[in-house]
Amino acid sequence: MNADNEKIKRIIVKSVLGTLTEEENFVLEEWLQEDDRNRVLYQKLSSTVELKHKYRQYENVDVAEAFRRNQRRLHQNVPNRVMKRMLPYAVAVLLLFGGVFCFLMNRSGEVREEVPVALSAGGKYAELILANGQKVNLHEGMEMKLRERSSNIQVKGNVVYYEENKDSVTVSEYNMIRTPLGGEYSLTLADGTKVWLNAMSELRYPVAFGGDTREVELKGEAYFEVKKNEDKPFIVKTDEFNVRVLGTSFNISAYLDSPLSHTTLCSGHVRINDRMNPGKEVDILPGEQLLFHRDNREMSVREVDTDVFVSWREGFFQFDNNTVEEVFMILQRWYNIQVFYANVEARQELFTGKLPRFDNLQIIIDLIERVSDLKIEVRGKMIYIDK
Question: Is the pTM of this model over 0.85?
Fold first, then answer.
């Protein structure tokens, strides 16, 4: 390995550990801009290292209680040794990362594009599309400044910040941020509203809010903390319905591949109306969730544990009596896998539990298989499930 590669290797390690100097950060940014392969490699490596953080989170997860709940609901005997076996799996993944990193950085003295890690997850990255069509690839630890006519934009700490330019004439400029499979990112809009975007999602929004309302368009899933402004209601538009708020926190999941969309309210008050039938409105209160049924366009409200539906922001998968089909639909968006069910019974098996979003899916598959009657076989990116 030449001296330059040795230097980049050290800088990547320090970047992952959060100990970069200003000069080293400048060298890293130059290296990332030199070649798209460098950026792809850095994204994959940095997302894998996130397991260190998630492993620390794992220590605070009450896995035993989740198993007990599963046992009561599924009427099964869950061996206590399963909990003890989770620790070696987590450590094994950390060791796997070390091996992959050394392999990539030393093989033939070159930095390689391909990272042969099966069932690996994504990380903090997305694509930002500016009003002029320019595309900016966002990644872990990125820092840069951009400018639109009506707003100054700063990317820092995995967040895109918008600050309205008061000295310029407000024009109708829109930006878009979208996350791929396994990607997620956050942004703060010009009015101070904070948005967390989950995997395979897209948000279109004005760089500055003019007029009497603040309107954004969402595809996929996002969590909102809306800045209160009684004179300018905040409206989230999806393909099927609109969510109107003043100042509140809520989660919207509106994936087109799911028969259900749901809006979960954590605080405040929201009103949802069917876009095809504007007069059809439903209000929900904190702790409630509105379900939108795509097949018949019916809306229903139920009380829920909101943590189950917003824990993804903190890097968790949380399930509460979900069917295996629902569980793997969520996992598909993070791990880019295909799932094949051998029978209907396998789809309807129930699962309850809260786990860190491990970078290696095998840990989660191992857990699900051991607390259920399922037989799960992994073949590359294909998962075969039988009962």
Answer: no
